[in-house]
Design goal:
- The chain has 116 residues and is mainly α.
- It is 66% helix and 0% strand.
- The protein has three helices and no strands.
- The relative contact order is 0.10.
- Its main location: nucleus.
- This is Mediator of RNA polymerase II transcription subunit 9.
């Protein structure tokens, strides 16, 4: 069976949960800031660090792109806030009704067992 939770493939259109979305950008941002703050006196070291920094920026951009594609795969993302609140209220009402039915069933079962 195929596993559709590959987060590195932006063309993978399976549904994700919020916990599965990769939004861990801080380590890359930290590395970029560190490399910009360094003061090199040697021009070759400056050029090498500048190139490394450019690669880190590209890596961050790629991570942003992957996060965007993952966010678009989250269930319900296509609904606006008003639609989400409506759906939430419908589900809350269904839950309340089902709880009431379960309570009635339990009461009925306990009533029947008391006469046996």
């Amino acid at each position: 069976m195929e596993n559709n939770t590959d987060h590195s493939d932006p063309n993978n259109f399976s549904s994700l949960t919020v916990q599965e979305v990769d939004v861990d950008f801080l380590p890359i941002v930290y590395e970029i800031i560190r490399s910009v703050e360094r003061d090199f006196h040697d021009n070759s070291a400056k050029a090498r660090e500048s190139q490394d920094c450019s690669l880190k920026v590209l890596e961050l951009q790629k991570k942003f792109d992957i996060a965007r594609s993952q966010i678009l795969r989250l269930p319900g993302i296509e609904y606006n806030k008003q639609d989400q609140l409506k759906q939430f209220e419908i589900l809350r009402t269904q839950l309340r009704l089902k709880r009431e039915l379960l309570q009635k069933y339990r009461n009925m079962c306990s009533f029947e067992t008391s006469f046996k």
